[in-house]
């Protein structure tokens, strides 16, 4: 018996081999990840904040899902400072105490 598999293409160029949900193109994990991204993008367009709903970190799948949500979340300032360590980074790069 043949089952349709998830159409998500991973970063390494390999398709997810999990079984897709009934009448869906993606597995449970990737369908939820896509829905969270769409929800966050819609909130961002409306100028609203998007509340994170992190699962209980009881296994590596939950840790991975939480990490993805945090990384996909909109950040208040899209600019990056020239020195992400701030004044503490000056001493760290030269060996001197700041």
Provide a brief overview of the structure.
With 98 residues, this protein is mostly helical. Helix content is 39%, strand content 0%. It has 3 helices and no strands.
How many strand elements? Answer: 0
User: Radius of gyration, Cα only, in angstroms?
Assistant: 19 Å
The shape is: globular
The average pLDDT score comes to 78
Head-to-tail CA distance between termini = 66 Å
Uncertain regions: pLDDT < 50 for 5+ in a row? 90-96
| Succession of helices and strands | HHH
The biggest beta sheet is recorded as: none
Please state roughly what percent of the residues sit in beta strands, choosing from under 5%, 5-15%, 15-25%, 25-35%, 35-45% or over 45%: under 5%
Structural class: mainly alpha
What features would you describe in this structure?
By secondary structure, the protein is mainly alpha-helical. The protein has a domain at 28-75. Helix content is 39%, strand content 0%. Helix 1 (28-45) runs parallel beside helix 2 (60-72). The longest helix has 18 residues, at 28-45. Mean pLDDT is 78; it is low at 90-96.
Topology:
Layout: H1 28-45, H2 60-72, H3 88-94
Features:
98 residues; mainly alpha; 3 helices; 39% helix
């Amino acid at each position: 018996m043949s089952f349709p598999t998830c159409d998500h293409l991973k970063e390494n160029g390999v398709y997810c081999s999990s079984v897709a949900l009934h009448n869906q193109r993606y597995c449970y994990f990737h369908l939820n990840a896509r829905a969270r991204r769409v929800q966050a993008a819609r909130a961002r367009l409306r100028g609203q904040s998007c509340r994170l709903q992190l699962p209980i970190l009881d296994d590596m799948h939950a840790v991975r899902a939480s990490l993805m949500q945090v990384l996909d979340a909109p950040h208040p300032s899209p600019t990056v400072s020239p020195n992400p360590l701030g004044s503490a980074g000056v001493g760290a790069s030269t060996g001197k105490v700041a």
